[in-house]
Amino acid sequence: MAEQQEQAAADAMTTRIGQAVMLLHGGDREEARSRFLDLWAEIGEDGDALHRCTLAHYMADTQDDPSDELAWDLRALSAADELTHDRVAEHPEHHQSLAVRAFYPSLHLNLAADYVKLGRSEAARGHLGAARAGISVLGDDAYGDGVRAGIGRLESRLDREGPDGAPEPTPRRPGQGRGPGGTGGPGGETLGPPRREP
Q: Mean pLDDT, to the nearest integer, of 7-17?
């Protein structure tokens, strides 16, 4: 009985995170951010790692400051590490472990994009290498294609860096930049992958 109640609570949290994601994708970043913060407080720092990973992954998309975006993407990676190494035994559905492994290329690509925005190309290259190393677990679907394309775009951008390590300037066009659910770079280009639906 207790296991059924825990599963029902977990399903309800997944649904609530999904509702906030729909707000984000619908363009209401402020409301999505507010709901994500409320859910984060409810889940807690030691709550379900899969929920924390998913929530932090999307919460990064609601941030205006690249440093805040980085902090949320780091939380997502930390939660994924906890789930795949420490908590997988607590989740009898081992397919969750496989799903999280497929999340790693995206998590690392988003971190690489964050570091590019912050002018930290060496850190960006490290995470980009980790993203590239994990792409074998991605499916041949729109999500996998999006992640692989994002890796290619960011690799090209880093390859164009000047000798002092600063990225070549990219002119910003009106209306470009980080939009709802996007991972726009300083010049408005898309640096990261599409976010996977929860």
A: 81
